[in-house]
């Protein structure tokens, strides 16, 4: 699961006993060599799906980490792209690894629960970060996303179908979440990361309460489960307002850094 360039067991243990922010600061230099980074096929599939729906001027990658999702936005947005994360270490890596070309990119250190932006974005994406938010935090988080979107703006993120009860994946995730709950009950600072807490029904309900119109798009690149349901869906939540125009321009390339 980890490449030779990834973190050692000791480094992972130190990270796990830190706060979320400090843990990611420590992990940042080797983060892209771990299974925690969103895989390129998922990034590519999301980019392709969004490219078919609309064009966008300004995009925000929420909890951008080392910037993998910013590359997706750079291929979708015509004017500018922003990555926001509360880990200074992750942002430092993102700045160094940003690719030249495409729209200008800026990097902002901030908490997703208190975003320092006006309603200036047409598209907000996020990849693999929602396990760091407790279910009771979703209303506030989604309200923050709404506050930075223009009318008609879009909030999109992939959501993997949960493993079947009794399967190996089910027991692995249950075991991980159980260990994290015990750790957080016995140790401070807490490290919030729960794989089973971000459920589709809860997400749809809270997005709707926040004023979004919620749609689901299967990502066909990942096929379907035995019951016919998609293995991976793209959640597309839109605000009321003037709809985005149809695509008329080619996709750009990964962006440069203005920070």
Automatic annotation (TrEMBL):
GO biological process: any one? methylation
Task: Using the record, list the residue span of the signal peptide; answer none if the entry has no such feature.
Answer: none
Entries under SUPFAM superfamilies matching the protein: S-adenosyl-L-methionine-dependent methyltransferases
Renumbered to this chain, region (Disordered) spans: 240-259
Instruction: Write down the CDD domains for this protein, in alphabetical order.
Output: AdoMet_MTases
| Alphabetized UniProt keyword annotations | Methyltransferase, Transferase
Q: Does the keyword Transferase apply?
A: yes
Task: Show where the Methyltransferase domain sits.
Answer: 60-153
Task: State any single GO MF term.
Answer: methyltransferase activity
Question: What is this protein's record name?
Answer: Methyltransferase
Organism (species): Streptomyces djakartensis
């Amino acid at each position: 699961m980890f490449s030779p360039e990834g973190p050692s067991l000791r480094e992972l243990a130190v990270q796990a006993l830190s706060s979320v922010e400090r843990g990611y600061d420590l992990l940042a230099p080797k983060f892209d060599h771990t299974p925690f980074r969103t895989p390129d096929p998922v990034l590519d599939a999301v980019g392709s799906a969004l490219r078919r729906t609309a064009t966008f001027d300004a995009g925000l990658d929420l909890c951008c980490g080392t910037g993998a999702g910013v590359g997706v936005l750079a291929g979708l947005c015509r004017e500018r792209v922003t990555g926001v994360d509360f880990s200074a270490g992750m942002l430092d890596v993102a700045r160094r690894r940003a690719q030249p070309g495409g729209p200008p990119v800026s990097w902002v250190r901030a908490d997703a629960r208190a975003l320092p932006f006006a309603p200036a974005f047409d598209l907000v994406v996020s990849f693999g970060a929602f396990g760091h938010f407790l279910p009771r935090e979703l209303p506030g988080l989604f309200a923050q996303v709404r506050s930075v979107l223009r009318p008609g703006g879009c909030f999109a993120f992939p959501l993997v179908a949960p493993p079947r009860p009794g399967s190996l994946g089910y027991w692995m995730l249950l075991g991980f979440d159980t260990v994290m709950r015990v750790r957080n009950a016995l140790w401070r600072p807490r490290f919030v990361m729960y794989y089973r807490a971000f459920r589709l029904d809860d997400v749809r309900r809270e997005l709707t309460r926040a004023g979004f119109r919620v749609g689901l798009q299967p990502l066909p690149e990942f096929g379907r489960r035995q019951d016919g349901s998609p293995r991976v869906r793209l959640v597309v939540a839109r605000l009321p307002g003037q709809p985005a125009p149809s695509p008329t321009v080619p996709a750009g390339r990964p962006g440069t850094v203005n920070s």
